[in-house]
Automatic annotation (TrEMBL):
It comes from Anopheles atroparvus. The chain crosses the membrane at residues 29-49, 61-79, 91-109, 209-230. Its EC number is 3.5.1.-. It is an enzyme of class 3 (hydrolase). It is found in: Membrane. This is Alkaline ceramidase.
Length: 268
């Protein structure tokens, strides 16, 4: 990595929004500020998951911290359009996905080669992430498209879990989450592939909507897999999907409530 990769505009990727139209210091203003949910949401999720982190899996807070890093990296990239910013943006997304999968994927979905060992599974996911990180430097222009394919295994695993889940609230959240994810991907594709069309309608801001929708989709996905994990491996903890600020308002902020206070002794 040389100093030129820190320069503004050094990234081969430039989204549809016009550059430096609002501020002389921020290349893509809407795409930059639309990351605000990644900065505001995770600290509150850390609070809501304090019992989960204490009694079940402390690493849940790593996921929320990584989401903050995703927001900061994305804001830096869109503000500067530097290659370093692009790589930070993309690699933090990769690592938050792999961390969630490693820590909370139910064991029954592990390939047989891991023999149900989460330690082996985490190790293999770490190796894959390191290799993918190295490869991302080879052809930066295609990294974003490669990352989109991560939605396929995530959606498949969610589908498999929703088929057997007995909690209707969990099922409804999974359906809403998938719908929002599809809407986010539609925004991403339209901004990337049909920029001229949207620019002609004076609305080149779909990537900003992607940021908002993908956060609204990403954190409930983490909540769902946190629920699946404890429901599968610690059912005596009696996990319950709840919502803040009112539990009867299912469009609020979802979190997993733990009703049995015993620390997790199982191996990672």
């Amino acid at each position: 990595m040389t100093w030129e990769h820190l320069e503004r505009g050094s990234s081969p990727v430039d989204w549809c929004e016009g550059n430096y139209l609002v501020s002389p210091d921020i290349a893509e203003f809407v795409n930059t500020v639309s990351n605000v949910l990644f900065l505001l949401g995770p600290p509150f999720l850390i609070y809501l998951f304090k019992d989960y982190g204490k009694f079940i899996q402390p690493a849940i807070h790593l996921i929320w911290v990584l989401l903050i890093v995703v927001g900061l990296s994305s804001a830096y990239f869109h503000a500067t359009l530097s290659l370093l910013g692009q790589l930070l943006d993309e690699l933090t997304i990769l690592w938050v996905f792999m961390a969630t999968l490693s820590l909370f994927c139910p064991r029954r979905h592990f390939p047989r080669i891991f023999k149900g060992s989460r330690k082996r599974f985490c190790l293999s996911m770490s190796i894959f992430s390191i290799v993918a990180t190295a490869l991302s430097f080879c052809h930066p222009a295609i990294n974003a498209f490669a990352l989109m394919f991560l939605a396929i295994p995530a959606t498949y695993l969610l589908y498999k879990e929703l088929k057997i889940v007995q909690d209707e609230r969990v099922y409804r959240l999974g359906v809403r989450n998938t719908t929002i994810l599809i809407a986010a991907i539609v925004c991403w594709i339209n901004d990337r592939m049909f920029c001229d069309t949207w620019s002609s309608m004076n609305f080149p801001y779909l990537h900003g909507f992607w940021h908002i929708l993908i956060f609204i989709s990403a954190y409930p996905a983490c909540v769902l897999f946190a629920f699946f994990f404890v429901n599968d491996e610690r059912p005596e903890s009696r996990p319950t999907l709840k919502y803040w600020p009112r539990n009867d308002f299912e469009l609020g902020i979802p979190y997993v409530s733990i009703n049995y206070g015993k620390k997790l002794d199982d191996e990672i």
